Structure prediction request, 496 residues.
Amino acid sequence: MELVEALNKEELRSFKLFLKQYQVKSSGLLIGKLLDSYKLGNKSDNDIRANVFPMLKKNAFYQLKSRMIESIYKSLILLNYNKDENILIKNYLTLAQIFTYKAEYSLAYKILKKAEKKAIGNDFLFLSYIIYSEIIDLSIAFNEIELPRYLNLKKETLVKIQENEKIEYLTTEIGWRLQQTNFEGTGISIIDELEKIKSKLENVHLIKNNHNIQLQLQKTVRNILLQKGDFNSLEIYLENKLAEFEKLKIFKKTNHNHKIVMQVWLINSLLKLKKFQKVEIVTETLMKDLIAFNKLHYNKFIWTYFQSKFISTYFLGDLKKSLEVLVFIESQPKTVNLDYYNLFLNQNFFIIYYSLNNYKKANQHLNELLKPKLYKTLSPELKMSVNVVDLIMYYENNDYNYLIYRIKEIKRKFRTSLSKPNFERVKSFLNLLDVLSKYPNPFENKKVLPKLQQFIANSPPFEPGNNENINYKVWLLSKLNKRSYFDELLLEVKTD
Prediction:
């Protein structure tokens, strides 16, 4: 069940406590039993009813399921009552309505005042507008409220909302104009180009007065640079904006997610640009922010930190440290989909041991990727990549006869995929691997060398994180130059 699967350990623990404290004992036990049944696997409702609750009729079973779902919702609300300022304000509004139903108008007003203070402090204009509407409605029953004051505040807030709509139009126009601009992808030009665009627009000064709009404009520009594939500009733009927003003290708990996303995209840009030393620095800054505000966004982004840490240490040439990162990840609670977790770990354990020339351990992790349970979850591209790596390992072990047989099998099995344009490079490499397995000393053979050189010349620039677990171009160059794959890879990273 999707709802049960979405619960983490803390939420499950909180839910069990909720059942003990707030549910009738017998009902709580049944709900807990039902929750455990869903946790055990992807069983259908019919299976669970037949095997776990045979005493319940169909209607009674679904009533129990509904009570479990409602109980989970209530438990989550209790656990996350003040998760962030937005959620807290909405809970204050709910409490104020409850006190209003109870005719406890003074208490309702006090709660709404607390909500107002929070909303103003966080520039939540729409929430402020709702709060003022609630206070105005409450004034009918509670005459101690200074009605003219709140009527004016509601009117002023509406003006600000309308002003913000003008600003949103401005950000949209800035984005559109930026998309039409063919500025040079040298990085710093994006900052200059934005200033030129802003200087031609009316009311652009309004952006400076609203932190939320500044964050939104940053997101708009970021997305445009991503669409253009201009990672040089994106790196400099994000570095400038992160420093500027820190100086202006724009970042706070309510928009902390924006800061983390900006750091993540800065890391992604640096990885694309192969600036691995800078990645090391930014990932450590990211970790500091992930543990801020009681780890508010930790689970959502910790996997990005681990991936970035591994990639940077690997391409900086520190295989020992890279292996330590993977071992550490393996020891941590799983915060991502299990299939993705197993794919990431086994892929990277493989490449570490392959880079260390430890083919025995590399094959152990390759075999994990080829096991049906994990293999069937892979995309066609990843399935092909894993199979090609398997072929390379047969070549490394000098098992040429079986390699030739396996190439034929893979061509037959993937014939539909191999007929598609995006598989053209793999198809060429399979043909080349077939040739290599049939010639003695193929990397010195005059008939084979032109084919090797043509494949290398047609290969795209090396890019970390692509679907090739072993980069075909780098692997061929390592054989030609009589170097280890990892040594050749580090040279490719430095010279690309």
User: Anything to note?
Assistant: The chain is about 75% helix and 0% strand. Residues 380-496 form one domain. The CA atoms of residues 389 and 470 lie 7 Å apart. The radius of gyration is 29 Å.
